[in-house]
Structures are given as C-alpha cells and as structure tokens.
Write a structure and sequence with these properties.
With 107 residues, this protein is an all-alpha fold. It is built from five helices and no strands. Helix 1 crosses helix 2. The model has no long low-confidence stretch (mean pLDDT 84).
Length: 107
C-alpha cells in the first residue's frame, strides 16, 4: 500500500513539474514576442512559478540567461519635467539664464 501511495505522489509531483515547465516556456515565448525585457522575475510572475523553480532547473535557467544576453540594450526613458525635482529644475534655469540673455537680450 505504501509503495502505491509513493508512486502516486511521485507521479503527481512529476505532473506538476511538467505543467510548470510548460507554463514557463509559454511565458518565455510571450515575453520575447512582446519585446519585453526577459528576467527571472518577469518569467516567474508570468508563469506563476517561483524564482527558485527557475534557478533550480538548469535548462530553464540557461534559456533565460541566453535570452537576457541577446536582448537589445534600451535607452533609459526620458523623464518628464513634471517629475524632475524642483531644485534640479531651478539649477537648470540658473545655468541657462546667461545663455538665454546673451542670445535673446536681457529680460
């Protein structure tokens, strides 16, 4: 009886692992097709698995690292002036004032 239970538990665990593996591969495909950044966090979130699961599976870890390495570097997003700190805006205004007055005349 104990051997039957052990076999059933192992079969269930193998099935869950195979299901999680399929979800990870589907998530990797979706992330790369969308042009999004491939990361362990992004894949784990999309596939509903833990990051530990990804790190513990050598074939998945290698695939994620390969996709990360071939990603095209992106330029940082431009900040809107709305989000630039007030002191920084004031410093830029002070720096530009002499240039403005030299080219436009005094105000």
């Amino acid at each position: 009886m104990s051997d039957d239970r052990t076999t059933a538990i192992r079969a269930a665990a193998t099935g869950r692992t195979a299901d999680a593996d399929a979800r990870v591969r589907k998530a990797l495909s979706a992330i790369t097709n969308a042009g999004s950044e491939v990361s362990f966090v992004a894949v784990a979130t999309a596939a509903d698995v833990s990051r530990q699961f990804l790190y513990s599976r050598p074939e998945l870890r290698t695939e994620i690292e390969r996709l990360r390495a071939q990603a095209v570097p992106r330029l940082p997003a431009r900040r809107s002036l709305k989000y630039v700190p007030r002191r920084e805006r004031e410093q830029v205004a002070r720096d530009l004032k002499p240039i403005y007055t030299a080219t436009r005349g005094s105000t």
